[in-house]
Amino acid sequence: MSRAAFDDELTPFLQGSTSPSWSVRAASGRSLAPFAEIPEVAEVLHRLLLDGRDTIVTHETAEALLERWDVLGLRMVLVALADADDDTGDQLDDAIHDVCCQSKEDGVRLAALCSALTSDADGDVSREARRILEPLR
What we know:
The chain is mainly alpha-helical and 137 residues long. It has helices spanning 3-16, 22-32, 39-49, 55-66, 71-83, 86-100, 104-117, 123-133.
């Protein structure tokens, strides 16, 4: 993505991520999730996953990352889960359930992603991946 395209497409969502409105922050998280590979976006997504003002922002951002169905999206949620307070952690766990545990096929896909993360260099990520994986076995 060129810098001009980045500015045109993502800047409004990056700016919205600091809005006083929970709905604008949640929409920013959803809109930025497809671009999680971009370091600047990843930083904002991490902050939204740990949003201290409204757990719906956490939930919506986590769902959008999990709907990617890739290691990066799940890893970002697990990193946040390791740092989260109890309420935020509950929202992150709920998002994992809401997106990744709706069918047997979802469970298989989630197990494959978690398996890939059980050997992650970040001990918190690998621990969370094992915790999620255990009941799926």
